[in-house]
Amino acid sequence: MTDGTAPPRRGPDGKGHVHHGFAEALDSTYPDVLATPEEWRTNGQTVWFTGHSLGGAPAMLAGARMFLEESRLAADGVCTFGQPRTCDPTLADAYNKGYKNRTYRFVNNNDIVPQLPPEPFYTHANALRYIDSHGRIRASMPLIGGVADRVSGPTADVLAPASDGVRDHFIDSYLKVLEKNLD
After folding, report:
1. Which of 39, 64, 66, 93 has its CA 20 to 30 A from that of 86?
2. Considering its fold, how many domains does the chain have in total?
3. Which SUPFAM superfamilies match (predicted)?
4. Residue 42's domain spans which residues?
5. How far apart are the first and last CA of the chain?
6. What is the CA radius of gyration of the chain?
7. DSSP string over 121-142
8. Residue 180 to residues 94, 146, 176: CA-CA distances in angstroms?
9. CA dihedral over 80, 82, 86, 92, signed as positive or negative
């Protein structure tokens, strides 16, 4: 239901607009989220919001909301995996200013979820970490090479063409790539 409730609503501190369903998902837990930074920063720890798929949207929105409305409590960063588009360009710009160099938005090759809901109504914040078809993490998706790289995924499995978009979305796929890149 959260994914399907897509009309926009005002963003945090009145900046831009957000996907209504994702904002509702955050609203249901925000009082607990708001208490987290003070609770966990007892000995200088950092607090990061993270989430996969649908969980990535409220993680990003929690970071935006805390930065724009509760700056003293802002998270130290946000890290998402396969996050859907969550907000309009106005809120994305405000978010990018607040979390510059403190956000990692991982997209695994042909993962279908980061392509939804459609642009131009919704967009992503910056900080893309694109995982190519060879499992390399890149700071951006190259324009020319990116097209060829994305085409190689759907054609890789002749018994299940186009299944790459779903297979690339599983969190296990993300974890394998991250472990591989630790070496």
Report:
1. 39
2. 1
3. alpha/beta-Hydrolases
4. 8-182
5. 40
6. 17
7. T-B--S-EEEE-TTS-EESS--
8. 33, 21, 6
9. positive
Q: What is the pTM of this model?
A: 0.86
Q: Kindly state whether residue 3 falls inside one of the protein's structural domains.
A: no
> 65 lies in a domain?
yes
Phi, psi of 181 (to 5 degrees): -85, -5
Q: What is the pLDDT of residues 3-58, one digit of tens each?
A: 555 689 999 999 999 999 999 999 999 998 888 887 888 888 888 999 999 999 99
* CA separation for the pair 144, 113 (Å, rounded): 22
Note the pLDDT tens digit of each residue in 84-130.
999 999 999 999 998 988 999 999 999 999 999 988 889 999 889 99
Parallel, antiparallel or unpaired: strands 128-131 and 103-108? parallel
Contact 75, 47 (CB under 8 A): yes
Q: How far is CA 107 from the centre of its chain?
A: 8
- Residue 51, domain member (yes or no): yes
Q: What is the rounded CA–CA span in Å between residue 105 and residue 64?
A: 14
Residue linked to tokens 């979305």? 169
81, 123, 57, 38: CA torsion to nearest 10 = 100
Q: Provide the CATH number for the domain around residue 33.
A: 3.40.50.1820
Q: Which two tokens stand for residue 180?
A: 């591989």
Contact 21, 31 (CB under 8 A): no
